[in-house]
Amino acid sequence: MKRFFILFSLIVLLISSDSNAWDTTAAKFYPIQSGNAYFYKKISYDLFCGHGLDTQYLKVTIDSDSLMPNGKKYFKFSGFNYFSCWNYQRIDSNSMNVYGYYNGADVLLDSLLGISNNFFRGKRNYVCTFPVKVDVLTNYLLFNSPPFRKAKYVQNDNREATYFYFLVENFGLCEVYNCELDTGFNLSTVGCIINGVVYGDTTLTGIQKLSSFIPENFSLSQNYPNPFNPNTIINYSIPSNVKRETSNVKLVVYNNLGKEIATLVNEKQNAGSYEVEFNGEGFPSGVYFYNLVVSSSNSLSTTDFAETKRMILLK
User: Fold this and answer.
1) Among residues 182, 200, 218, which one ends one of the domains?
2) Whose CA, among 5, 214, 229, 243, lies 20 to 30 Å from 193?
3) Does residue 15 lie in a domain region?
């Protein structure tokens, strides 16, 4: 009789475990683990979200889990968080929902079990709750390079705002777009660290537009300080041109063997003066070169300006 009771208890336990089993397939779309990190490029927009104002490079790291006052454990997200629900997050093993911690309670952010044409009311966007629709795609190009990866595309169901994001399999949240009241932003992943493996570009580069003054000529300034250890600033200027509103700008750092070691800028930019910081942490002392190439926005093969300067990393 005792053996029967033990066997019966094991069967009940197995049934209970199966009903609350962790869905490993769904979990791949949102890998929360201590040590994971994301490097994002954020572009802010105005003029009906058709004009880029500035570009920022931001980092988010996932720290160890913490027990909150509501008795549940959440992973702490440090760094850039555009809404406080992002600061602490967890995945519920029963529902596979992603919850944020806000004002002492769970706030629904995502439904990882959602399939095509499913709707749920998530609060990943600000404090508003919009019904969002899930569409499963198989053609997301992460870091703008092959291969295409499977992703869940989630879009809002609200006519007053355009809002969508991508959860990429094995990587998590990799892009967010928001346009509301004619202003908005795009947040896209340029690199990340998942389970200790580095993907994409994890060089955290801050690009700042220094002023609204439009320069008369192209220029690439000498970095300062020089020599430097480990950070240095590089300034450059792009003049106005009646043939275009934006230019393709690429600023790359090379070692003394001519090998590319960091891409500081690779995007379209408006006329103006810019400042970029290079972090030489992890590189040996020596001579390095930085090369600026500016091309017409309508033709990548047409070079308007190119210049290379030398700098010295001294540790």
Assistant:
1) 200
2) 229
3) no
